[in-house]
Design brief:
- This protein is α/β, with parallel strands linked by helices.
- The chain folds into 2 domains: 49 residues, Helicase, Ruva Protein, domain 3 (Orthogonal Bundle), CATH 1.10.8; 107 residues, Dna Topoisomerase Vi A Subunit, Chain: A, domain 2, CATH 3.40.1360.10.
- 44% of the residues lie in helices and 14% in strands.
- The chain contains 6 helices and 6 strands; from the N terminus they run H-H-H-E-E-E-H-E-H-E-H-E.
- The longest helix has 17 residues.
Amino acid sequence: MSYPPSLQKLIKELSKLPSIGEKSAARLAYHIAVNDKGLAKKLSDALQQVDGAVRQCERCFFLSESELCAVCSNPSRDATQLCVVEKPLDVLAIERVGEFRGLYHVLHGLWAPLRGQGPQNIRLAELLERLEKDGVQEVIIATNSTVEGDATALYIARLLNEKKIRSTRLAQGMPRGGE
């Protein structure tokens, strides 16, 4: 015996989300279908709204509903400091601490040669272009302490060294569970 076709389709789509396996997807689908009839409509509306409204900031590639995100459009931020992170969730983790007053650059990935992801697959060209145009004096590299994160950080540090731009690296990357 199996689930009805509409529930199977929902399970299949939910299981495509990160960290959601088939069992978790089945539990979520069951809850949506049986326990909370209004939830399916609310989820549908929210997904359609996100699909049409959320995009990447044109400057830092964080998430935004306009050309520039709230950080990039804030004139009180220190434009001489740039924090380079792997993904948008990293920006949120750093912002929660409330100490960094500079701007961000989201790579949307890491240099991972074993997975076929080279420097051309992440937003390094855009980073270098920004450094040329925006007068950045210091780049803080805040990639996670993984093989790929460390390789990406080293690669960026070498590029920055060639351009005589000061770079620093967070000692441990993002805090555990901060993602």
